[in-house]
Every structure is written in C-alpha cells, then in structure tokens.
Amino acid sequence: MKEGPSSGTMEDEDLLKDFQVGERSYKYYDVTQIQGYEELPYSLRVLLECAVRKRSETQGQVWKDVYERILSVLSGCEEDSEEDDDILFHPGRVLLQDFTGVPALIDLAAIRESVSKSGGCPDVVDSLCPADLVVDHCVQVDYNQIKQQLSSPPDPSPKTPVLGGSMQPCPTVIVHSTFPPPFLAYPPPPPIYTLPAFYPISSYQSKVVAPSPASNTSNRSVPPMDNPGLPIQDDICPFHQKMSYWADALRSNQTSEFERNKERFIFLKWVNSAFKNITVIPPGTGVMHQVNLEYLARVVTCQGGVLFPDSVVGTDTHTTMINGLGVLGWGVGTLDAQAVMFGHPVTLSFPRVVGIRIKGVISDYSTSTDLVLMITKKLRQAGVQGAFVEFFGPSLKELSVADRATISNMCPEYGALVGFFPIDEITIQYLAQSGRDKSHIETVEKYMKTVKMFRSSDENENIRFASIIEIDLSDIIPCVSGPKRTKDKVSINEIAADFKSALHLKEGPKGYGLSQGQGHVAFSVNIDGEYFTVGHGTVLLAAISSCTNTSNPSVMLGAGLLAKKAVECGLSVPKVVKTSLAPGSGVVTSYLQESGVMPYLYMLGFEIVGYGCSTCSYNSGPNLPDSIVQAIKQGNLVCCGLLSGNRNFEGRLDPDIRANYLASPLMVIAYAIAGRIDINLDREPLGFNSHTGEAIFLKNIWPSRQEIQEIERKLVIPGIYRQVYSKVSVGNKHWDSLSVPNSVDKFPWSSDSTYIKCPEYIKEIGSNARNWKNMRCLLKLGDNITSDHISPAGSITRSSPAAEYLSSLGLAPREYNSYGARRGNYHVMVRGTFSNMRLQNHLLNKVGPYTLHLPSEVTTTIFEASERYKNDGVSLFAIGGKNFGRGTSRDWATRGPFLLGVRAILAVSFDPTYRSNLVKTGILPLQITSISYESLKGTECLSIDIRDNITPKCLIDVVVGKAERSFKAVVRVDNDYETDVFHAGGVIAQIVSKTKDKTTCETA
Fold first, then answer.
1. Alpha helices of 586-697 — where are they, by DSSP H?
2. Alpha-carbon distance 798 to 127, whole Å?
3. Are residues 955 and 889 in the same domain?
4. Which residues, in sequence order, are CB contacts of 949 under 8 Å at separation 6+?
C-alpha cells in the first residue's frame, strides 16, 4: 500500500486557478495537483473538491478534517476507521417533491413573515442554496380507459374470454358487477391505419389541426386522424400545443389533481414568485427525477465566479437517479434538505467505494430493466449497504445515459448510497441530445477534463476501490422481479413455474400458503355484459409508470413498437386489466407521438393518465371493480399486477392485488395482452389474431434493438427537449388560473385551512430557551424505536388527539386523511407525535399514545401531558434503548418531540441520521450505558450539566433528583459544526438569529 499524501503539501490559495472558456472567465480549484488524486474514485474526487473549496471559503477545521479523511483512502487508513466516522458535504442544489417539500417551504414563509413583522428585510430570508421543487407526487389515476356509452345493449350470454392461454375450469359461481367509472366499457380496437415509423421533426411546425367531428361524438371506437405525430394540447400537457384525441384520461386526471390540491398549489405558486432562489416546477411537468435528469441538472455549476461539479440532495430516495448523468446525488430527509437550503452541509458516514466493472454486450431481448434487476440482485448478494457504488469497465460505452439513470435509480433497492457513473463522451452526447446550451456543454467538457473527472474509455484505470464486482452484460436475460420483493428476480422462461410454486409455499416473503386444492380456483365475472375468467395469476393491473423506466427512450419506444406490432397482429388487452401510462415528462409524450406509436398504445389501453409518480407511489386510483374483488375474496385468489417501476411491496399497486411484478415497459404490455402471469412466453402464444385465428408469440411482435435505436436516433433530439422545457415557466391553464397574492412578504394563511397553517412554533424555536434543571420524563421506550413510532405517516385514527382536533373543526372521520397528507398543519402533526397505536411506553402498562403525568400520576395522552408540563414551565426528556430513531428520515420525528417540550433524549444508541437530525432540531442526544438505562424508571427528575463550551462527544454529568446520585453520559454532538448548530438552538433558530438583526435589504 502506497504512503498517503500530506495535506500540507499545497495551500488552498495555490489551488485556485483561472479558467477560460471562449470569452468567459472563471475560477476553479485545481485539485489535480494533490498527490495521489488520480487514484481516487471519481465520486470521491467530487467530495474532495468540495472539501478544498469549503476549506478555502470558511477556513474551518471541520473541512480540513474532511480533506484529510478522503485522502486517507490512498494510505489504507480507512480500514481502521470507526463505524461512526462521519464527514460533511455541501451539495450544490436541493431537489424537493411536493409532499416532503411543502413543510420546509412553510417554515421558510413563516420565518420571512416573522422578519418582516419585526422590521427586518424579508428578502434576506431565502434559500441560500438553489432549490427546485417539482410537483409530482399528487397524480392519482382516477381515469384510465376511454369512456363511451355502448352503441348496443350488451349480450347477457356468457362468452369464453381469450386471455392468451388456457385456464382451469371455472366454478359455476357468477359474480355480477356494477362497474365504477374508470372501468367503463373500452371500445373495440379501431381500424389499423398505416402510419409511418416516425414523423419528420418538421411536423412540429405544422398548423394546428382542427379536431375531427368524430371526436365530438359519443361513438369513439374509431379515433380521428388528427395527426398523432403532433404534441398534444396544453389542456392536458403543460408543454404541448396541439389538440389530441389520445388524452381524454390525462385531461380528467389533471382536473382532479388540481381540485384535490388547490390549497397546496396556491401556496407553491406563491413560493415560486416570492423566493428568488427557489423554483417550483408546475404539476403535470413530470417525475422529479426525470425532470432533474433532462432539465434541472447543471453537471458543472458556477457560484461567485467559481466553477465546481454539480451535486444534489433530494427529499426522495430515488434522487440517486441523477448519478447516471455523472452528478453526485442522494436522498435525504426533509430536515436535512431544509438545513442545506439554510446554508448547512449534510453529514454522511465516510463511504467505502465499490467498483463495478462492466463487460460484455447486452442481448437483443434484454432491456435496461433486465440489467438493473440483475445488478440489484448481484449487489444485494455482495452487500453494498451504505456504500458508494461506482461503475467502470470496457462495456460502459454500451450503456446510454438513460440506461445508466435506470441503474442509478434503483440504488435504494440494492442498498448503496449512490450508483455513480463518471462523466464521459456518452454524457456529453446526452447533454447535446437533451437540448442543453452549446456553450454550457463546452464548459462542462473542458472543466471536467481539466480537473480529471472526465472518464476516458481507453485510459488505464488505476483507481483504488474498496472492492470490485464484475458484471457481464451477456449474462443478462429477460426477467421480472417479484412477486413481493425487488430482489426476487425470475427469468420469463421460469416465471410460470415460479408463480405456481409460490402459491403453495409457506406464507412469507415469497409464498402465499395455499393448499393444493386452492390452486385451481377460477371465477367468471361479468364486466358490462362480457364474461371474463379471473383466477390465480390473472393480470388485473398493468402500469407503465415512474422515473425508473419512462426516462429511457429505448424501452419506451420499444414498448410503443411492440404495441404497434401487437395491434397489427390482431391482439388486444382483456377488459379486466386496468392499464395506464404515466410518462416521467412531456418529452416522452413528444417522441411517442413523433414516432407514430401513440395510437397503438392507446388501442391497447395504455392511455396517458398524467405526468408524475401515479401507480408507482400508491396512486393507482379507485380500487378494482366489486365483481373482481368479490371473486378474489371468495376464492382467496392471488391475482397479479405489472409495473415498470422500482417497488413491488404487497398491496402497493392495489390492496386486492397480492402478486406484484416489476418488469420493463415491453413486458408490462406483453403480460397485459396475455392476461396472466403463469405463461411461458417462449412456448405459449400471447393470444390469437382476432381476424385469422393465428397464434401470436412474443417473438412475433418483439422489436429489434436496431429498430429501436434507429427511431431513437431520429426522434429523441434537442428540439423536442427545448420545445418541452421552454414552457416550464408558463405552466398550464389550471396552474395559470390559480390566484396568488402580490405580496412577497407574507402569505395569506387561511384560518379555514386544515392542511396548511402558519407555523407559530417558529417563534418558540427561534427563542432558543432551554431549561436543563429538574426535567421530567415524557416517556421511556425500548429498543429499535423507529421514526414511524415517533411520527406516524398513516391514517389518523378516530380516538387520537389529532382526530379530536380535526373533529373540533367540523371534519368527519372520512375527511381526516393521513398524517402524511397533513404535514403542513403543525396542529395535527404535534398531536400525532408518539401516537403510534403499537407504542409501548414503559412508564405504564398500556400500549398506545399514553403516558403518566408526574407528579400527579394521572394517565393521559402524551400530547395532553406535554401541554400540562408546558403550562408549568417544565422541560422534558425521553429515554430510549438501542438504535433509537431508525428507519425513514422524517422531519416531524424530531420536530414533533421538540414541540412537545422534549429538550433531551437519553438512549443507549442512536440511528446516525436521527441523531444528526436531533442536533439540527435543537434537541440534545445523550448516549448512556445499558446500566444507566435500566436504572432509570422515568419517574425521576433529571438535571443535565450542560454548558456553553461543550466539545464534540464530551462526557457530562446527569444528576438524578436532588443530587441523590448522578451518572455520566456522552454528548452525541459529534463535530465542531454540530456544536455550533446546537449552541444556536438548531438550524431554524440559527437562521432566525442571523436574519432578525438585518433591518434593511442593503445590510443583508
């Protein structure tokens, strides 16, 4: 092992150099002069550049420590590091989605209002880091298939359905249905028009085509030829200008989306106009990760005249998708994102970097979906939890940026923090393809090559990885993943046998526990006069959705071509299958229209329902028809759903669909046509030509890679991206119709609102008043307390304090909604803290959100007890066991306890992210021994000997009662940065303190 370099060999001012691109002049830090730099993985080079830049800007010891820690990789010192060896990183951007972003922006609006009321300049309150919020998590599939009245009465006689293969004989039970609107009769396939493989891009400039009279009649079985190569009208997509027949469901879903979320959208539109450094991307634009990839990502950014690599943290786990573009990024909790907006760094455990060497060539029948499922399985087996995964090797050139982004998107599923693809020629080609400015692309390429963050495919890679895993693309075979876990990858040749085996396996991660006698049950259900067989393995839902695949032109165009060939072969999708298409952005719609495949997707039922997460994030819309649900329950049926997404937990697609499979968009369509999962696609036909009776196999309609690549080359061009994203700031008619106030100082909070409230707690937090004497215990908890125990995200139960509050406002139980939906109303969230019905508080023998108030010894709710303590001026603490606060990071998991009056948490050990969030909130994390934990009953008063000069991880005394005894505790404020934040009272208190004295905008 080579000896590591010394940090003192080069001063930061010596690294700051001039940089010229054409007539533009910049500065940059020449990190290539650091000894051993070229042996660092590319992902660590990004962290090192940040440490050098911040060390120069702040002269802070903490950044010097980060610098030293990164370079220790070259000396092998990282092998001796501690498990909790944390470093800091300052991302260049923040990416928010609407559900998690709204609470952070509400805080910002309240701080601005507070500063304005105190005579300060409201403009000083803004995001100190560029922040983008993409409204994408509220799309729900209420409408998914074309609605029409039957032209003739339905034939009541049973028909034998064609589901692509034989089923077991049906029992004589017939379940009749009253069908809900989303499942109204689907028209017969329209006549096949001969459409060109693609439309010339000049068709973008053609005149608006008036809708055909046929589009205004109730008989819509034959679609008008309104030039399907044209983008659709902005009625239904915020970017497109032309009328289209294909967007009936999309129009209806967007109308519903705005009706449901009008209150939140008005607030977000005000934010967009009030804050200079925050951009709100209107609803209907697309999934946040795909918009980030196609439009928002800078790759190289500039602040204060200094160039540096773009990087991002986002409030969604799949923010990792951007690593496919060579931009370092990962998901964080709302509190961390908010802290970055206030100018704070993020904390992360120093990552080991695992190299993934890519070799071989992918086969024609395999897609990036198959690739990512194989990589997910292989990396799960290898164990890369929390690591940086970095891809290299001779076959990296085989993967487009869309392929890479698909792989990076699945990072949370294989456990890594990031899946990083260094920038190379393919990245530069994508930037040009996606319509980025030529001068910016020139800057990106020159800068990245200068700082040696540009990977050359023919260079000798002598990089020090912690370990290397090899993946051969030629080993990849078409597969799906399921039926319950993403890691359970199954070849399409084996899926039929695998599913049948799963039916009879013991109920658990793979099995359903059915007896042999239960495995051959099927029912005939009446769907508007037609009878369909529903049994084990019947496909009831097929959704092309989410950022995982819809960002990838090759698989989306491939799906369209497969649909075209299927329709031409006389195939259709059974009416029992609920189908939908939710593109990640308007760009997808453009090239599907331009290629001429959109009509064929429509004919198979894959109509565009919206731009957002939809089915991928539990928003598949209304449940299955009653007739199907009754059949499922009566026969204990295991029916299936197909999703081109990244998560397949049981019940995620629909509560009555038990088997959920992840597949490529092409396979989603194929299985939808087959109508069942237990089919061998090599040996059994998908179905039969409706005109000739000929058996049609998958191989008959599967498009070749050459076909797909040719269309992609001609259609996915810069003009489409520029056309689409030039209209982001314009929005659509729904967004434009929202009326917002002109004042940027104050948002007009509605007293009638139950979803968004002005957070009056900002004043309480900003006061930084903490009393460490004679503190009372609010609750004592055990081991492995999760963020969901602390701040539930599920439904609000009728007997909870939150329900009592909502009921007092006149809401009925059906209107309570969930804690997640009401994150913008702090009255609900503080009452919901520790309200998990399975919570076990060791202060009393009662499960649920209850505690013992002391000294009165009255059993009451945790919220009511906290109110009594607050009125008496008593500060509170909580006691926990091992791994306190584990699970998904939630801002209210620390903010909630703070607002209940908790100022310290004593635990045997903390989840690292939760511990960091406690500090950012202003709560003191104290680590105690197991002996101290057992000795504390929760009935004692504690006094904590906390002082202004505490140092990271110092020992302090905790005094019990009136000095009867004391014990030692470790202050888990782990570095100088956290020490400053804690002394300020937390991140929000710190920003309030910094802004309250700035009385004029000039002094800001």
1. 586-594, 598-603, 626-635, 665-674
2. 38
3. yes
4. none
SS3 state at 895: helix
Quote the CA–CA distance of 232 and 246 in Å, as a whole number: 8
The residues with which 619 forms a beta bridge, in sequence order, are none
Predicted local distance difference test score (pLDDT) of residue 13: 66
Residue 464 phi/psi, 5-degree rounding, is -90, 100
Collapsing DSSP to helix, strand or coil, 653 comes out as coil
Please state, in angstroms and rounded to a whole number, the distance separating the CA atoms of residues 532 and 186: 14
- 570 with 648, same domain: the answer is yes
**Alpha carbon distance 313, 889 (integer Å):** 14
Give the residue among 986, 960, 918, 969 at the shortest CA–CA distance from 769. Answer: 986
Q: Are 703 and 560 members of one domain?
A: yes
Q: Are residues 116 and 108 in contact, defined by beta-carbon separation less than 8 angstroms?
A: no
Q: What are the tokens at 821?
A: 């939906």
Q: What is the amino acid identity at position 172?
A: T
Q: Tokens representing 443?
A: 């800057």
* Cα dihedral sign, 31-34-35-36: negative
Residue-level pLDDT at 706: 81
Q: Return d(Cα 118, Cα 382) in angstroms, integer.
A: 57
Give the integer Cα–Cα distance in Å for 537 and 499. 8
Residue 787 belongs to domain spanning = 769-791+833-985
Query: Under a CB-based contact definition with an 8 Å cutoff, are residues 829 and 759 in contact?
Result: no
pLDDT in tens, 527-541: 878 899 999 999 999
**Closest C-alpha to 906, from 836, 844, 957:** 957
pLDDT for residue 219:
34
* Residue pair 791/892 in contact by the 8 Å Cβ criterion: yes
Q: What is the DSSP letter of 443?
A: H
pLDDT tens profile 664-697? 899 999 999 999 999 999 899 999 998 899 999 9
In a domain, 917, yes or no: yes
Please list, residue by residue across 167-182, b when 16 or more beta carbons sit within 10 angstroms of its beta carbon and e when fewer do. Answer: beebeeeebebebeeb
Show the tokens assigned to 644: 């081109």
Q: Is residue 534 part of a domain?
A: yes
Q: What is the pLDDT of residue 942?
A: 96
Structural Rg of the chain based on CA atoms: 29
List Cα–Cα distances, 549 to 192, 328, 408, 432, 644, in angstroms. Answer: 28, 20, 11, 21, 6
Asked whether the beta carbons of 375 and 421 are under 8 A apart, the reply is no
Number of domain units in the chain = 2
d(CA 397, CA 395): 5
Looking up residue 519, the CATH number of its domain turns out to be 3.30.499.10
CA 370 to each of CA 485, 668, 867: distance values in angstroms, whole numbers, following the listed order: 15, 13, 55
What is the per-residue pLDDT for 205? Answer: 28
Residue type, 761: Y
What stretches in the chain show pLDDT beneath 70?
Answer: 1-13, 59, 75-84, 136-260, 286, 457-460, 546-551, 610-623, 646-653, 716-732, 766-769, 996-1004
Kindly state whether residues 641 and 777 are assigned to the same domain.
no
668 and 780 housed in the same domain: no
Residues 6+ apart with CB under 8 A from 884: 781, 785, 905, 907, 908, 909, 910, 911, 914
Name the pTM for this structure.
0.74
CB hemisphere CA count around 589 (13 angstroms): 34
Residue 528 backbone zone (phi > 0: left; psi -120 to 50: alpha; other: beta): left
Q: Which two tokens stand for residue 451?
A: 């700082």
Same domain, residue pair 669 and 775 = no
Same domain assignment for residues 842 and 977: yes
317 found inside a domain: no
Tell me the C-alpha distance between 487 and 429, whole Å: 32
Task: Give the pLDDT of residue 202.
Answer: 29
Q: What is the CATH number of the domain that holds 886?
A: 3.20.19.10
Q: Cβ(787)–Cβ(914) under 8 Å?
A: yes
Q: Which residues contact 955 (CB under 8 A, 6 or more apart)?
A: 968, 969, 970, 971
Q: Which of 920, 764, 922 is nearest to 333 (CA)?
A: 920
